[in-house]
Amino acid sequence: MQPKGIVAIAIVAVLIITGSCAVLLTNDNPDNDPFTGDVDAAGKPIEPVDNIDNGIVAIGQDSFRWITYFDLADRCVMIDWNDSYNFLGKSYMYVGRALVDIEGSDTATPDDMTYYSHTNCGITDDDFRTILELNPSVVVVPKGFYTDYKNIMNALDKQGINTVAIDYVYTFLEPGTFQITEQVENQIDILAKALCQEERGQELKDAFEDCVSDIRTFTDRISVKRTAYVGSLAYNGAHGIDSSMTYYMPLELAGVRNIVGGTPDWTDSGVRTFSAPEIKKNLQDDTILFIDASGYHVNTDNTSKHILEMFKGHDAYTIAPYIWTGINHDTVFVNALQILRFAYGDEVITESEYEEAVKNVYERFYGTYESNRNIDNPNKISGTLDLPSEGTTILEDMNAVYEAVRGVSIGAEVTIGDGGTLSTA
Fold first, then answer.
1. Residue by residue, what is the 3-state secondary structure of the chain?
2. How far is Cα 70 from Cα 90, in angstroms, rounded to an integer?
3. What's the topology of domain 222-424?
4. What's the confidence (pLDDT) of residue 104?
Protein backbone atom coordinates (compact mmCIF):
# COMPACT_ATOMS: atom_id res chain seq x y z
CA MET A 1 0.00 0.00 0.00
CA GLN A 2 1.28 3.49 -0.83
CA PRO A 3 2.49 5.22 2.39
CA LYS A 4 0.05 7.75 3.79
CA GLY A 5 1.26 11.34 3.52
CA ILE A 6 3.09 10.80 0.20
CA VAL A 7 1.33 12.25 -2.82
CA ALA A 8 2.31 11.17 -6.29
CA ILE A 9 3.88 13.91 -8.42
CA ALA A 10 1.15 13.64 -11.02
CA ILE A 11 -1.56 14.05 -8.40
CA VAL A 12 0.13 17.11 -6.93
CA ALA A 13 0.31 18.61 -10.39
CA VAL A 14 -3.39 18.08 -10.88
CA LEU A 15 -4.24 19.81 -7.61
CA ILE A 16 -1.92 22.76 -8.25
CA ILE A 17 -3.32 23.31 -11.73
CA THR A 18 -6.97 23.01 -10.74
CA GLY A 19 -6.79 24.66 -7.31
CA SER A 20 -10.08 23.14 -6.21
CA CYS A 21 -11.84 19.99 -7.22
CA ALA A 22 -15.09 21.94 -7.23
CA VAL A 23 -14.14 23.46 -10.59
CA LEU A 24 -12.50 20.44 -12.20
CA LEU A 25 -15.55 19.19 -14.10
CA THR A 26 -19.13 20.13 -14.76
CA ASN A 27 -20.13 17.05 -16.75
CA ASP A 28 -23.05 15.31 -15.03
CA ASN A 29 -22.17 11.93 -16.56
CA PRO A 30 -19.10 10.28 -14.95
CA ASP A 31 -18.72 7.96 -17.94
CA ASN A 32 -19.95 8.91 -21.37
CA ASP A 33 -19.17 5.56 -22.97
CA PRO A 34 -22.13 3.22 -23.52
CA PHE A 35 -22.19 0.25 -21.16
CA THR A 36 -24.53 -2.70 -21.12
CA GLY A 37 -23.09 -4.77 -18.24
CA ASP A 38 -23.65 -4.64 -14.47
CA VAL A 39 -24.06 -1.20 -12.97
CA ASP A 40 -24.05 0.20 -9.45
CA ALA A 41 -26.83 2.15 -7.71
CA ALA A 42 -25.86 5.33 -9.57
CA GLY A 43 -26.03 3.56 -12.93
CA LYS A 44 -22.25 3.42 -13.35
CA PRO A 45 -20.51 0.31 -14.69
CA ILE A 46 -19.05 -1.85 -11.93
CA GLU A 47 -15.30 -2.46 -12.11
CA PRO A 48 -14.63 -5.58 -9.98
CA VAL A 49 -11.62 -5.34 -7.67
CA ASP A 50 -9.83 -8.64 -7.16
CA ASN A 51 -6.98 -7.01 -5.24
CA ILE A 52 -7.78 -4.59 -2.42
CA ASP A 53 -4.20 -4.20 -1.13
CA ASN A 54 -4.51 -0.42 -1.48
CA GLY A 55 -7.53 -0.48 0.81
CA ILE A 56 -11.13 0.69 0.78
CA VAL A 57 -12.54 4.18 1.30
CA ALA A 58 -16.06 3.90 2.75
CA ILE A 59 -17.72 7.27 3.33
CA GLY A 60 -21.28 8.57 3.45
CA GLN A 61 -24.40 6.95 4.87
CA ASP A 62 -24.25 3.15 5.16
CA SER A 63 -20.97 2.64 3.29
CA PHE A 64 -18.95 1.49 6.30
CA ARG A 65 -21.95 -0.49 7.56
CA TRP A 66 -22.06 -2.57 4.38
CA ILE A 67 -18.28 -2.96 4.21
CA THR A 68 -18.39 -4.30 7.78
CA TYR A 69 -21.21 -6.69 6.79
CA PHE A 70 -18.88 -7.92 4.03
CA ASP A 71 -16.19 -8.58 6.66
CA LEU A 72 -13.81 -6.03 5.13
CA ALA A 73 -13.65 -3.35 7.83
CA ASP A 74 -9.97 -4.14 8.37
CA ARG A 75 -9.27 -3.13 4.77
CA CYS A 76 -10.67 0.38 5.22
CA VAL A 77 -8.14 3.21 5.03
CA MET A 78 -10.70 6.05 5.24
CA ILE A 79 -14.20 6.15 6.70
CA ASP A 80 -16.90 8.72 7.38
CA TRP A 81 -16.46 11.28 10.16
CA ASN A 82 -19.64 10.02 11.80
CA ASP A 83 -18.23 6.48 11.80
CA SER A 84 -15.02 7.59 13.52
CA TYR A 85 -16.43 7.97 17.02
CA ASN A 86 -20.24 7.94 17.07
CA PHE A 87 -21.15 4.45 18.31
CA LEU A 88 -24.59 4.84 19.91
CA GLY A 89 -27.07 2.81 17.86
CA LYS A 90 -24.82 1.67 15.02
CA SER A 91 -24.12 -1.95 15.85
CA TYR A 92 -21.59 -2.35 13.03
CA MET A 93 -19.34 0.13 14.86
CA TYR A 94 -18.92 -2.32 17.75
CA VAL A 95 -17.20 -4.72 15.36
CA GLY A 96 -15.81 -2.69 12.47
CA ARG A 97 -14.41 0.45 14.05
CA ALA A 98 -11.55 -1.28 15.89
CA LEU A 99 -10.44 -3.01 12.70
CA VAL A 100 -10.01 0.08 10.53
CA ASP A 101 -6.46 0.71 9.29
CA ILE A 102 -6.36 4.41 10.10
CA GLU A 103 -3.57 6.35 11.75
CA GLY A 104 -4.40 8.22 14.94
CA SER A 105 -5.34 7.40 18.50
CA ASP A 106 -8.44 5.53 19.57
CA THR A 107 -10.00 8.70 20.94
CA ALA A 108 -10.63 10.01 17.39
CA THR A 109 -10.09 13.67 18.26
CA PRO A 110 -9.94 16.30 15.47
CA ASP A 111 -6.15 15.97 15.40
CA ASP A 112 -6.56 12.31 14.43
CA MET A 113 -8.99 12.91 11.60
CA THR A 114 -6.77 13.04 8.51
CA TYR A 115 -8.14 9.78 7.22
CA TYR A 116 -11.75 10.38 8.13
CA SER A 117 -14.04 12.45 5.94
CA HIS A 118 -14.19 16.09 6.95
CA THR A 119 -17.97 16.17 7.18
CA ASN A 120 -20.82 13.93 8.27
CA CYS A 121 -22.10 11.79 5.38
CA GLY A 122 -20.55 13.98 2.70
CA ILE A 123 -17.34 14.60 0.77
CA THR A 124 -15.21 17.75 0.66
CA ASP A 125 -12.32 19.09 -1.41
CA ASP A 126 -9.97 17.99 1.40
CA ASP A 127 -11.43 14.47 1.20
CA PHE A 128 -10.79 14.48 -2.54
CA ARG A 129 -7.12 15.27 -1.94
CA THR A 130 -6.84 12.58 0.75
CA ILE A 131 -8.40 9.98 -1.53
CA LEU A 132 -5.95 10.82 -4.30
CA GLU A 133 -3.13 10.53 -1.79
CA LEU A 134 -4.33 7.13 -0.58
CA ASN A 135 -5.01 5.88 -4.12
CA PRO A 136 -7.36 3.19 -2.72
CA SER A 137 -8.41 0.06 -4.56
CA VAL A 138 -12.04 1.17 -4.39
CA VAL A 139 -14.20 3.98 -2.97
CA VAL A 140 -17.70 3.10 -1.72
CA VAL A 141 -20.23 5.96 -1.48
CA PRO A 142 -24.02 6.41 -1.51
CA LYS A 143 -25.54 7.08 -4.93
CA GLY A 144 -26.56 10.58 -3.80
CA PHE A 145 -22.92 11.65 -3.92
CA TYR A 146 -23.17 11.69 -7.72
CA THR A 147 -25.81 14.41 -7.57
CA ASP A 148 -24.90 16.22 -4.35
CA TYR A 149 -21.15 16.25 -5.02
CA LYS A 150 -21.10 15.63 -8.76
CA ASN A 151 -17.95 17.65 -9.52
CA ILE A 152 -15.88 15.87 -6.89
CA MET A 153 -17.12 12.44 -7.92
CA ASN A 154 -16.52 13.17 -11.60
CA ALA A 155 -13.03 14.35 -10.70
CA LEU A 156 -12.29 11.10 -8.87
CA ASP A 157 -13.43 9.14 -11.92
CA LYS A 158 -11.25 11.22 -14.21
CA GLN A 159 -8.26 10.50 -11.98
CA GLY A 160 -8.84 6.78 -12.39
CA ILE A 161 -10.19 6.14 -8.87
CA ASN A 162 -12.54 3.16 -8.91
CA THR A 163 -15.81 4.15 -7.22
CA VAL A 164 -18.95 2.13 -6.54
CA ALA A 165 -22.27 3.62 -5.46
CA ILE A 166 -24.69 1.93 -3.08
CA ASP A 167 -28.39 2.63 -2.56
CA TYR A 168 -30.25 4.09 0.42
CA VAL A 169 -32.03 1.02 1.80
CA TYR A 170 -34.78 1.46 4.40
CA THR A 171 -37.29 -1.22 3.42
CA PHE A 172 -35.47 -4.51 3.09
CA LEU A 173 -38.21 -7.09 3.75
CA GLU A 174 -41.42 -7.42 1.76
CA PRO A 175 -44.56 -6.82 3.86
CA GLY A 176 -46.31 -10.06 4.76
CA THR A 177 -43.81 -12.52 3.30
CA PHE A 178 -40.69 -10.94 4.87
CA GLN A 179 -38.64 -11.98 1.85
CA ILE A 180 -35.69 -9.69 1.15
CA THR A 181 -36.63 -6.96 -1.31
CA GLU A 182 -35.20 -6.64 -4.78
CA GLN A 183 -33.52 -3.44 -3.61
CA VAL A 184 -31.50 -5.06 -0.82
CA GLU A 185 -30.72 -8.07 -3.01
CA ASN A 186 -29.37 -5.67 -5.63
CA GLN A 187 -27.38 -3.83 -2.95
CA ILE A 188 -25.68 -7.07 -1.94
CA ASP A 189 -25.08 -8.07 -5.57
CA ILE A 190 -23.47 -4.71 -6.39
CA LEU A 191 -20.97 -4.97 -3.55
CA ALA A 192 -20.40 -8.69 -4.03
CA LYS A 193 -19.45 -8.07 -7.66
CA ALA A 194 -17.45 -4.89 -7.01
CA LEU A 195 -15.46 -6.50 -4.18
CA CYS A 196 -15.27 -10.00 -5.73
CA GLN A 197 -17.07 -11.34 -2.66
CA GLU A 198 -19.86 -13.41 -4.20
CA GLU A 199 -19.67 -16.09 -1.51
CA ARG A 200 -20.05 -13.54 1.29
CA GLY A 201 -22.86 -11.90 -0.66
CA GLN A 202 -24.82 -15.14 -0.61
CA GLU A 203 -24.11 -15.55 3.11
CA LEU A 204 -25.62 -12.11 3.73
CA LYS A 205 -28.75 -12.97 1.76
CA ASP A 206 -29.01 -16.12 3.85
CA ALA A 207 -28.50 -14.04 7.03
CA PHE A 208 -31.65 -12.03 6.35
CA GLU A 209 -33.66 -15.15 5.59
CA ASP A 210 -32.31 -17.11 8.57
CA CYS A 211 -33.10 -14.28 11.00
CA VAL A 212 -36.68 -14.17 9.72
CA SER A 213 -36.91 -17.93 10.08
CA ASP A 214 -35.73 -17.78 13.71
CA ILE A 215 -38.32 -15.13 14.56
CA ARG A 216 -41.11 -17.10 12.91
CA THR A 217 -40.27 -20.03 15.18
CA PHE A 218 -41.37 -17.85 18.09
CA THR A 219 -44.29 -16.01 16.45
CA ASP A 220 -45.86 -19.38 15.66
CA ARG A 221 -46.37 -19.76 19.42
CA ILE A 222 -48.48 -16.58 19.75
CA SER A 223 -52.08 -17.26 20.67
CA VAL A 224 -53.46 -13.72 21.07
CA LYS A 225 -51.76 -10.74 19.44
CA ARG A 226 -51.06 -7.62 21.48
CA THR A 227 -51.01 -4.02 20.29
CA ALA A 228 -48.22 -1.48 20.59
CA TYR A 229 -47.02 1.99 19.72
CA VAL A 230 -43.35 2.75 19.11
CA GLY A 231 -42.12 6.33 19.42
CA SER A 232 -39.02 8.51 19.47
CA LEU A 233 -37.73 7.04 16.23
CA ALA A 234 -34.68 8.87 14.97
CA TYR A 235 -34.33 10.56 11.61
CA ASN A 236 -31.68 13.24 11.12
CA GLY A 237 -31.20 13.21 14.88
CA ALA A 238 -33.20 12.30 17.97
CA HIS A 239 -36.96 12.95 18.11
CA GLY A 240 -39.76 12.84 20.65
CA ILE A 241 -42.49 10.29 21.25
CA ASP A 242 -44.64 11.61 18.37
CA SER A 243 -42.05 10.30 15.89
CA SER A 244 -43.19 6.90 14.61
CA MET A 245 -44.02 4.85 11.49
CA THR A 246 -47.11 3.37 9.87
CA TYR A 247 -45.06 0.26 9.09
CA TYR A 248 -42.53 -0.50 11.82
CA MET A 249 -40.87 -3.69 10.67
CA PRO A 250 -39.89 -5.09 14.12
CA LEU A 251 -43.54 -4.95 15.23
CA GLU A 252 -44.62 -6.71 12.04
CA LEU A 253 -41.96 -9.39 12.47
CA ALA A 254 -42.90 -9.89 16.12
CA GLY A 255 -46.61 -10.34 15.48
CA VAL A 256 -47.65 -7.21 17.39
CA ARG A 257 -50.25 -4.87 15.91
CA ASN A 258 -49.15 -1.27 15.41
CA ILE A 259 -51.93 1.06 16.62
CA VAL A 260 -50.90 3.72 14.06
CA GLY A 261 -50.34 1.09 11.38
CA GLY A 262 -51.55 1.47 7.86
CA THR A 263 -50.24 1.69 4.34
CA PRO A 264 -46.45 1.47 4.41
CA ASP A 265 -44.79 4.83 3.79
CA TRP A 266 -41.70 4.25 1.66
CA THR A 267 -40.70 7.93 1.60
CA ASP A 268 -37.08 8.10 2.76
CA SER A 269 -36.95 6.38 6.16
CA GLY A 270 -40.75 6.28 6.54
CA VAL A 271 -40.56 8.09 9.88
CA ARG A 272 -43.21 10.79 10.40
CA THR A 273 -44.88 12.80 13.15
CA PHE A 274 -48.17 11.61 14.66
CA SER A 275 -50.60 13.83 16.55
CA ALA A 276 -52.00 13.00 19.97
CA PRO A 277 -55.54 12.39 18.56
CA GLU A 278 -54.16 9.97 15.94
CA ILE A 279 -52.49 7.95 18.68
CA LYS A 280 -55.29 8.17 21.25
CA LYS A 281 -58.11 6.99 18.98
CA ASN A 282 -56.45 3.60 18.53
CA LEU A 283 -55.03 3.15 22.02
CA GLN A 284 -56.13 -0.19 23.57
CA ASP A 285 -56.02 -1.44 27.16
CA ASP A 286 -53.30 -3.93 26.22
CA THR A 287 -51.19 -1.47 24.18
CA ILE A 288 -47.49 -1.52 25.01
CA LEU A 289 -45.37 1.60 24.58
CA PHE A 290 -41.94 1.08 23.05
CA ILE A 291 -39.51 3.99 23.15
CA ASP A 292 -36.52 4.05 20.82
CA ALA A 293 -33.51 4.61 23.08
CA SER A 294 -32.07 7.18 20.66
CA GLY A 295 -34.86 9.66 21.48
CA TYR A 296 -35.78 8.78 25.06
CA HIS A 297 -33.90 11.81 26.45
CA VAL A 298 -35.71 14.42 24.33
CA ASN A 299 -39.22 13.73 25.63
CA THR A 300 -39.33 16.84 27.79
CA ASP A 301 -41.52 19.20 25.74
CA ASN A 302 -45.26 19.61 26.28
CA THR A 303 -46.19 17.72 23.11
CA SER A 304 -44.24 14.65 24.19
CA LYS A 305 -45.50 14.80 27.77
CA HIS A 306 -49.13 15.07 26.65
CA ILE A 307 -48.81 11.95 24.50
CA LEU A 308 -46.87 10.06 27.16
CA GLU A 309 -49.52 10.81 29.78
CA MET A 310 -51.99 8.85 27.67
CA PHE A 311 -49.83 5.77 28.24
CA LYS A 312 -49.77 6.08 32.01
CA GLY A 313 -50.42 2.63 33.50
CA HIS A 314 -49.41 0.82 30.30
CA ASP A 315 -46.40 -1.45 29.94
CA ALA A 316 -43.50 0.55 28.52
CA TYR A 317 -39.92 -0.32 27.52
CA THR A 318 -36.95 1.13 25.71
CA ILE A 319 -35.66 -0.71 22.66
CA ALA A 320 -32.54 -0.59 20.48
CA PRO A 321 -32.29 2.14 17.81
CA TYR A 322 -34.03 1.38 14.54
CA ILE A 323 -32.44 4.15 12.47
CA TRP A 324 -29.10 5.75 13.09
CA THR A 325 -27.28 7.13 10.03
CA GLY A 326 -29.25 4.67 7.93
CA ILE A 327 -31.33 1.72 8.99
CA ASN A 328 -29.81 -0.78 11.40
CA HIS A 329 -30.66 -3.92 9.46
CA ASP A 330 -29.38 -6.38 12.05
CA THR A 331 -30.89 -4.34 14.88
CA VAL A 332 -34.31 -4.61 13.26
CA PHE A 333 -34.16 -8.34 13.99
CA VAL A 334 -32.87 -7.70 17.52
CA ASN A 335 -35.73 -5.23 18.06
CA ALA A 336 -38.24 -7.84 16.94
CA LEU A 337 -36.80 -10.30 19.45
CA GLN A 338 -36.94 -7.66 22.21
CA ILE A 339 -40.56 -6.89 21.36
CA LEU A 340 -41.45 -10.59 21.40
CA ARG A 341 -39.88 -10.98 24.82
CA PHE A 342 -41.57 -7.91 26.31
CA ALA A 343 -44.98 -8.50 24.70
CA TYR A 344 -45.36 -12.24 25.25
CA GLY A 345 -42.77 -13.41 27.77
CA ASP A 346 -41.87 -17.05 28.40
CA GLU A 347 -44.95 -18.39 26.65
CA VAL A 348 -43.45 -17.31 23.32
CA ILE A 349 -39.74 -16.79 23.94
CA THR A 350 -37.75 -17.57 27.08
CA GLU A 351 -34.83 -15.50 28.29
CA SER A 352 -32.31 -18.10 27.16
CA GLU A 353 -33.96 -18.42 23.74
CA TYR A 354 -33.93 -14.65 23.39
CA GLU A 355 -30.24 -14.37 24.27
CA GLU A 356 -29.28 -17.15 21.88
CA ALA A 357 -31.35 -15.67 19.04
CA VAL A 358 -29.73 -12.23 19.51
CA LYS A 359 -26.27 -13.79 19.37
CA ASN A 360 -27.23 -15.61 16.18
CA VAL A 361 -28.25 -12.33 14.51
CA TYR A 362 -24.86 -10.80 15.16
CA GLU A 363 -22.98 -13.97 14.21
CA ARG A 364 -24.66 -13.96 10.81
CA PHE A 365 -23.90 -10.33 10.04
CA TYR A 366 -20.46 -10.01 11.65
CA GLY A 367 -19.12 -13.49 12.30
CA THR A 368 -19.15 -12.69 16.03
CA TYR A 369 -21.61 -11.58 18.70
CA GLU A 370 -18.90 -9.95 20.83
CA SER A 371 -18.06 -6.25 20.89
CA ASN A 372 -14.49 -5.17 20.23
CA ARG A 373 -15.06 -1.45 20.83
CA ASN A 374 -11.68 0.18 21.39
CA ILE A 375 -12.73 3.74 22.21
CA ASP A 376 -13.39 4.24 25.91
CA ASN A 377 -15.11 7.62 25.59
CA PRO A 378 -16.79 7.56 22.18
CA ASN A 379 -18.91 10.69 22.48
CA LYS A 380 -16.62 12.87 24.57
CA ILE A 381 -18.81 12.50 27.64
CA SER A 382 -17.47 13.40 31.05
CA GLY A 383 -15.82 10.57 32.88
CA THR A 384 -14.81 7.33 31.25
CA LEU A 385 -16.59 4.38 29.73
CA ASP A 386 -14.88 1.06 30.34
CA LEU A 387 -13.90 -0.95 27.31
CA PRO A 388 -15.88 -4.18 26.92
CA SER A 389 -14.50 -7.30 28.56
CA GLU A 390 -14.14 -10.55 26.64
CA GLY A 391 -17.52 -12.11 25.98
CA THR A 392 -19.49 -8.85 26.15
CA THR A 393 -22.15 -8.96 23.46
CA ILE A 394 -22.66 -6.15 20.98
CA LEU A 395 -26.08 -5.41 22.50
CA GLU A 396 -24.67 -5.36 26.04
CA ASP A 397 -21.94 -2.94 25.02
CA MET A 398 -24.34 -0.74 23.06
CA ASN A 399 -26.40 -0.62 26.23
CA ALA A 400 -23.32 0.54 28.19
CA VAL A 401 -22.72 3.31 25.66
CA TYR A 402 -26.35 4.44 25.84
CA GLU A 403 -26.28 4.49 29.62
CA ALA A 404 -23.15 6.66 29.53
CA VAL A 405 -24.17 8.97 26.68
CA ARG A 406 -27.97 9.09 26.88
CA GLY A 407 -28.53 8.14 30.50
CA VAL A 408 -30.90 5.30 29.65
CA SER A 409 -30.57 1.55 29.23
CA ILE A 410 -31.69 -0.36 26.16
CA GLY A 411 -34.42 -2.79 27.16
CA ALA A 412 -35.30 -0.90 30.33
CA GLU A 413 -38.73 -1.00 31.89
CA VAL A 414 -40.16 2.51 31.83
CA THR A 415 -42.57 4.13 34.29
CA ILE A 416 -44.75 7.02 33.13
CA GLY A 417 -45.58 9.43 35.91
CA ASP A 418 -47.92 12.37 36.34
CA GLY A 419 -47.61 14.95 33.61
CA GLY A 420 -45.99 12.46 31.23
CA THR A 421 -42.67 12.23 32.99
CA LEU A 422 -40.41 9.23 32.30
CA SER A 423 -38.29 7.17 34.63
CA THR A 424 -36.59 3.77 34.49
CA ALA A 425 -35.95 1.24 37.19
1. CCCCCCCCHHHHHHHHHHCCHHHCCCCCCCCCCCCCCCECCCCCECCCCCCCCCCEEECCCCHHHHHHHCCCHHHEEEECCHHHHCCCCCCCHHHHHHHCCCCCCCCCCHHHHHHECCCCCCCCHHHHHHHHHHCCCEEEEECCHHHHCHHHHHHHHHCCCCEEEECCCCCCECCCCCCECHHHHHHHHHHHHHCCCHHHHHHHHHHHHHHHHHHHHHHCCCCCCCEEEEECCCCCCCCCCCEECCCCHHHHHHCCEECCCCCCCCCCCCCEECCHHHHHCCCCCCCEEEEECCCHHHCCCHHHHHHHHCCCCCCEEEECCCECCCECHHHHHHHHHHHHHHHHHHHCCCHHHHHHHHHHHHHHHHCCCECCCCCCCCCCCCCCCCCCCCCCEHHHHHHHHHHHHCCCCCCCEEEECHHHCEEEC
2. 16
3. Rossmann fold (3.40.50)
4. 67
Q: Where are the domains of the chain?
A: 9-168, 222-424
User: What pLDDT was estimated at residue 379?
Assistant: 72
User: What whole-number distance in Å separates Cα of residue 153 and Cα of residue 30?
Assistant: 8
Q: Are 9-168 and 222-424 equal in CATH topology?
A: yes
Count of CB atoms within 10 A of residue 301's CB? Answer: 12
Alpha carbon of 176 to those of 212, 257, 411: distances in Å? 12, 13, 26
CB atoms within 10 A of CB 69: 26
pLDDT at 34: 36
Question: Could you tell me which CATH number the domain at 9-168 has?
Answer: 3.40.50.1980
- What is the predicted pLDDT for the residue at 85? 86
What pLDDT shows up at residue 18?
36
pLDDT at 3: 40
- Residue 30 has a pLDDT of 34
388 vs 349: CA distance, rounded Å: 27
Q: Are 80 and 58 in contact (CB under 8 A)?
A: yes
Q: Report, as ranges of residue numbers, the positions in the chain whose pLDDT lies below 50.
A: 1-36
**pLDDT for res 111:** 66
Spatial separation of the C-alpha atoms in residues 425 and 412, rounded to whole Å: 7
- Neighbouring residues of 59: CB distance < 8 A, sequence distance ≥ 6: 78, 79, 80, 117, 121, 123, 127, 139, 140, 141
Report pLDDT for 110.
Answer: 62
